[in-house]
Amino acid sequence: MATFNGWDIVVMPTEPSAPATVEYSAIDTVAVSVSPFTGQQQTQDWQASFMEASVSMPTLTHSQAQEWIAFLMSLRGQAKIFQLGDPLAVSPRGSGLGTPLVDGAGQKGYSIALKGWTPGAVGVLLPGDWIQIGYRIYRSLAIATADGAGKLVLSIWPQLREPPADGDAVTLNNTKGLWRLKTNERKWSLTESRYYGMQFEIREAR
Fold first, then answer.
1. Most CB atoms within 10 A, among 6, 70, 146, 147?
2. What's this model's pTM, rounded to 2 decimal places?
3. CATH number at residue 36
4. Do 19 and 93 fall within a single domain?
5. What is the mean pLDDT of the segment spanning 56-81?
6. SS3 string of the chain?
C-alpha cells in the first residue's frame, strides 16, 4: 500500500468508474471583524485554503456495493486517505503544449513558477484547469502563456501544500488529489429493489 506523509493511501474501487455527483466546496480561512458602531470591516487572511466535497454514488448492484463498503471500511474513518479526481476534467481545456516541470525549489503560496512548456505557446492552461504535483492538485486561476524560454508563473488555488523540488513533474491529465473522510461515520442504504445507495462527505487531506 502506498503512503504519503505517513498516511496509508487506500485504492478506490473502479466500478462504477465515477460518482453520480460531486458537490465541491472551496474554503478560505479569512477572519472578518465588523464594528458594531460603524459597520467597518477588518479582515485577516490566514493564507490557508482547502476543499471539501459531497460524493454521491450511482445506484450500486450488490457486487459493486460490497467493493465500496469494503473501501469505506478500509479507510478506518479519518485515519487513512485516498485519491479522487474531477470526473469531468480529465484533461485541461488549455493546449498543455510542452512537458511542464517545477521551476525552482522552495516555492510557496498561491503561485508557482513552471518551465518546460513549448516556448511562446499561448493558453497552455485556462482558468479552472487542474494540475497535479506529486499527490497534490491545484486549479489554474488565469490564462497561462509560456514565454520565449518556455517558462511561466501560474496563479493557483489552493496554496502550495508542500514546497516542490526543482524539476518535479507537473501532471495535466487524469489529475487526482488526496482526500479523507470528513467524519468517522460511514453510511449506505439498501432499497426494496435490492440496489444500494451510498453518499459520503470528504475533505482534502492535509
1. 146
2. 0.92
3. 3.30.200.190
4. no
5. 97
6. CCEECCEEEECCCCCCCCCCEEEEEEEEEEEEEECCCCCCEEEEEEEEEEEEEEEECCCECHHHHHHHHHHHHHCCCCCCEEEECCCCCCCCCCCCCEEEEECCCCCCCCEEEEEEECCCCCCCECCCCEEEECCEEEEECCCECCCCCCCEEEEEECCCCCCCCCCCECECCCCCEEEEECCCCCCEEECCCCCEEEEEEEEECC
